[in-house]
Write the structure tokens for this entry.
Amino acid sequence: MFKYSIGTLISKEEISEKVKELALQIDNDYKGEEILLIGLLRGSVLFLSDLVRELKTEVTLDFMIVSSYGNELESSRDVKIKKDLEEDIRGKNVIVVEDIIDTGHTLKKVLEMLKTREPKSIKICTLLDKPERREVEIEVDYTGFKIPDEFVVGYGIDFAQKHRNLSYIGIVKKEEE
Ligand code: IMP
Ligand code: MG
């Protein structure tokens, strides 16, 4: 493991404002309907928990675990479902809530799988997006922040399982030994 420091990229206040904006957009899009929010564990948990408290639309929650980076800084690109949903999504309005989209492989796989279960509608909501890193095309409906190609942590997002508890988004900077 290398030595590193963490610099602030997005503050707690900026996140909080953005979460309110996203909730407003979602409320406007789903007037009179119900939504099933699917959180991808573990990174989306803080974002999801703040988002649901801003939503006025009736929501239910479910969670999935898909394979992550492990302790690496690079995506494995081989996405596996480790824990499936508890609920049947047929006929429901589904929004998949993700912490960050990088290559796009994770969400592409998840979306392909969920679409076969015939939801009424399916959309993606991500707090962060690194568009420069995209390897497969996916349509993202709600994006919090587009960020540069840097490894980030905080507000649910980890580096080797650490730093999820930061209230801001930070950039991991390698330090010389
Ligand atoms: P993708 O399949 O390459 O789009 O990867 C998406 C997943 O990779 C996210 O859900 C994160 O768990 C992880 N990830 C991507 N970029 C970062 C980062 O900068 N820091 C921490 N995890 C990341
Ligand atoms: Mg993730």
